[in-house]
Amino acid sequence: METTLQIFRTSYAFRNREFPIGKGKALQFIYGSKQSKTKGGLNAGTATTNVYRSSTFKAEMKAMQSQCCSPDEVIFGPDFHQSLYCHLLCGLIFREEIQLVFSTFAHSLVHAFRTFELVWEELCDDIREGVLSSRITVPSIRAAMSKILKPNPELADLIHKKCSGLSNWYGLIPELFPNAKYLSGIMTGSMEHYLKKLRHYAGDLPLMSADYGSSEGWIGANVNPSLPPELATFAVLPNIGYFEFIPQRLGNLESQVLCIEPKPVGLTEVKVGEEYEIIVTNVAGLYRYRLGDVVKVMGFHNSTPELKFICRRNLLLTINIDKNTEKDLQLSVDEAAQLLAEEKQEVVDFTSHVDLSTDPGHYVIFWEVSGEVNDEVLKECCNCLDRSFVDAGYVSARKVNAIGPLELRVVLKGTFQQILDHYLGLGAALSQFKTPRCVGPTNKTVLQILCNNIGKSYFSTAYG
Ligand code: AMP
């Protein structure tokens, strides 16, 4: 709690200097996860659930003018679909007061407004009549919402008019929340894919990439909030933990030949332009814990390094001599998605898989696409994906057919929602959800969901 508040206060101070917010509330798409008890009798749940429940946290949020506009019953409701609907409804009811729109990860912001596109008329009906939709069945949520929801036909008409006047939902967020100053959430790393859609909904509202941390502990604050998320860096808070950094570049010839991992260096010994894996020692009781993230040092804020998040360390895609990370996959998907943009379509979500059941093995990329796209364009996207993996190992293995042609499988609409529902069913929290960017052979359920929903499939001809 203490370190969470410390980093929230720090980044808020920097943010508020450039983007001051007035008296009001925040529309926060936050959700509690199921809690369980360990054998020893301790409460267990996701890190964010623990934070949102705390009264200290609530008091601090109020002090930062960022109090969540939804009641606790909505945040901690047992069904996230119902919670999301009510978050949206609360946002609309308090629309004039909303100062910022937040979720932990950008994925849930996009998810929320995609849902809004589907339920906005129902939300308007609820506001008009002052009666909550019958889709909300949880008694505690109904009771809490009945205290807020009153018949307001003028507000319902206004929202209806605003939504009807939008072109393809461009600029939806500032239309709904006229006093919102910015959107906030983690928008870097695996969340970058959602930026395009987020910008579409945000119109001219700035996007503020939130801090860098993990359930295991916080690392750095965004002290340059006016930079676009693509350029966001995080200044390490030196007193929030003890940090060491493993250089990613193998140093001398000997260590290269023997593949010995270089020795970790301290916070003040890192070099600008170099990439490192982070090791954390902190008050949570972790001792020299490898977080698994790779970061790049972009500069220094006073004497503390400013880090750019690069990727998870684990390689995502590898068959033999090829090495492709999450970032490589994202770049390749971004490149190919440009061909879709020409058709006014977009990649809703994506993941990947290494298929070793064929000989040679090959990469499979799963795409969910927003609308209909003809075969020729998708075929070209498939070739483009294959060509865009520029790792020397991949290219040379493809050339000699030691890796087979990349396969693009276009899945049916709603497939990624099914994957999300699957994880939530296992007790994951929507607040911390990240689409897995690679599905391994042991993840049978997700692989099954993907394979049961294949609409079309294409093999690359990029290498002849
Ligand atoms: P969790 O374990 O759910 O708390 O997620 C923590 C992981 O999310 C980190 O190890 C990172 O891989 C990723 N993450 C957290 N903050 C950021 C950020 N600001 N930018 C990019 N990735 C992040």
TrEMBL record:
Entry superkingdom: Eukaryota
Extract the PANTHER family matched here.
GH3 DOMAIN-CONTAINING PROTEIN, JASMONOYL--L-AMINO ACID SYNTHETASE JAR1
Q: Where are the transmembrane segments?
A: none
According to UniProt, the name of this protein is Jasmonic acid-amido synthetase JAR1
Pfam families reported for this sequence: GH3, GH3_C, GH3_M
- InterPro entries tied to this protein: GH3, GH3_C, GH3_M
Domain GH3 C-terminal spans what residues? 327-439
**Family, per the entry?**
Belongs to the IAA-amido conjugating enzyme family.
Q: Does the keyword Ligase apply?
A: yes
Organism equals Citrus sinensis
Q: Which GO terms describe its molecular function?
A: ligase activity
Q: Which UniProt keywords apply?
A: Ligase
Q: Where is the GH3 middle domain?
A: 235-312
